[in-house]
User: Fold this.
Amino acid sequence: MTTTTASARPGERTVGKSSPGAARGPRRRTGRIRRIGLPYLLLLPALVLELLVHLVPMVIGIVMSFKELTQFYIRDWSIAPWTGVDNYRISVDFDAPVGEALLHSFLVTCGFTVLSVGLCWFVGTAAAICMQDTFRGRGLLRALFLVPYALPVYAAVITWAFMFQHDNGLVNHVLHDQLGLTDKPSFWLIGDNSFVALLVVSVWKGWPFAFLIVMAGLQNIPKDLYEAAALDGAGVWQQIRRITLPSLRPVNQVLILVLFLWTFNDFNTPYVLFGKAAPAAADLISIHIYQSSFVTWNFGTGSAMSVLLLLFLLVVTGVYLLLTSRGRRSTHA
Amino acid sequence: MRSIRAAAVGAVTLSLALAASACGGGSASGGGSNDSPKTLTYWASNQGASVEVDKKVLQPELDKFEKQTGIKVELEVVPWSDLLNRILTATTSGQGPDVLNIGNTWSASLQATGALLPWDEKNFDKIGGKDRFVGSALGSTGVHGQDPAAVPLYSMAYALYYNKKMFADAGVTQPPATWDELVEVGRKISKDGKWALGAEGSNLSNNIHQVFVLGKQHGADFFTADGKPDFTSDGAVAAVKQYVDLMAKDKIIAPGNAEYAQNQSLSDFAKDKTAMVLWQTASATFASMGMKEDEWGVAPAPVQSGEPGTGTNTNSMVAGINMAVFKNTDNIDGATEFVKFMTSDAEQKILNKAYGSIPPVKAAQSDPAFNSPATAVLRDTLATSATALPQVPDESQFETAVGTAVKELFADAAAGRPVTTESVKAALAKAQQQMPTK
Assistant:
């Protein structure tokens, strides 16, 4: 066994040693290949995991969306008959019941997402700005603000479900019995108010994340900017408008994108709040697709809906990133 | 260099191992074998007050089985909310238990997956023959004309449970036998924060059970003879409207019940807030809520007129739990032996006594424990006036679609919006359109 090659370290030149010139070329090439290949080799486990956890299920889901996958075939989904684009056609035929229900659910989700993300951002930002100055009890208050983010989602949402109950819930007790704001106790878990209930829980759950991110963003704004502005006579509101918000723009761009994706796909909140059959007013698309797939056992149609949702989110995210990066470029210019 | 090379080798090995493991599993093989004759896994449905209670009831019996046969049974009690999804996952992956409990209304839907062992004559002979079981219970084990996909284990039926104190306070001397009587009694009781009848308006399965029975009383079946959805027939519309009208028009169900789905109506009953509930085998639950046996009575569920019986005087669905064997079990003989054990006369008495249900095995029903006033009503209902839910592959979808329609109608009633024949028909038409067309 020769040890000639083993003595060469990565990046070490072996030229000029006593080895014959004919052997120098291939050896150098081997070393270069090894140098270039090693990082990829080390990345391989991560790539394989990514492949297994994300790509393979995604490809299977896309294949399923072209199949008639019902209870008759779930034991071996590969033998389910091909239906071409039928599942997609059914999903986007908005005059037929399946498509109409999907469109309704999509519109509900869009409205819900805009309101929830907007409110989360607003409340989170307002709280972070208020907490910028030091005062007695700030640490405690900051920790309290993060409690909804730290609680397990299931436990938190089920507690909300108890509070929203018509007969014994805390919400009606306060609004109706104590404050007299409503003529009679309202229904929050069924009917039209369910949208409000869902929004309240979603914002309660989501704003601490916005608070955390904005708070981190605020740390990067130099204090002297505010001091200079104050010397120039700028009030608090002007400082927020002219300094804080523009400085937070890169943070907000990421924050809003993340909140949008999380909220649009949120499954836990509506499922724990309403069960597998959400009221029409709060029929978010995640629950709708779950119901199409796992409750009515129409896995093919459910997969097609999932692919459509994925495409929608990809397009929205792509456009958003394009617009925000263009905005950033023009700002820098 | 050596450490880098070792890391690279490790990385590649790990990648290959992961890739290889991903290629494993796959779909279920058909047939079953006896490769693992000394063990069985059993998914039991949650029958008792909690999963822990079930373990306490079942484990001594499983130990008894192990002593008799040398086969160890690994028990997992699965909550109802998870059971169907767990079964579907097991069906898809082929990695399920050997033996499992299923809700009997799912029999035909799960039969269609082909994952369950068909109980042909040969298999039934291994557990003592089909004749040992009550006919109505056998009626909910799969599509008629096909070998059953499961064997009845516990049977239940709906009855009218009434709160004696609330009846006495309202001057009502006997439980209502017809719906008209129930509404009449209900109006006497429904005042001063008290309500006559409890409902679980957001529980899809419960909604289906009630409207199916009322549908039978109106001559409707929700499915045609060849298994196609028929939700908008006059009888089906009348049935749904009659049920929702108990809240919307008759005002004998509290509006708050529209959002009930976690058996809150039973809790109201135990707290003297609701005088009646239509329920299956509720005695154990009432006891767990602190009610004494003499505080409540039980009567057959109402009919439109006359006495309960088959046909249009059906007053209950055949409720219950079936026992099924996964086709690809590694211990087919042991699994069959276990089903034989669990459906033996002796075990049927022990288990059904523990759960307050009725044995679907004829010989076990003769035990005096099933002749108490409460259980006798359930037993007679099962024998004479209960009908199995439609045994069609789309039954599970039917529960969701129509159950949701009834839930939405209850929400309308609770909010004070009118519930008319047209609105009921529209809701049912929408439900029917959501059913699979293939």
Remarks:
- The domain at 107-303 of chain A is CATH 1.10.3720.10 (MetI-like fold).
- Chain A has 13 helices and no strands.
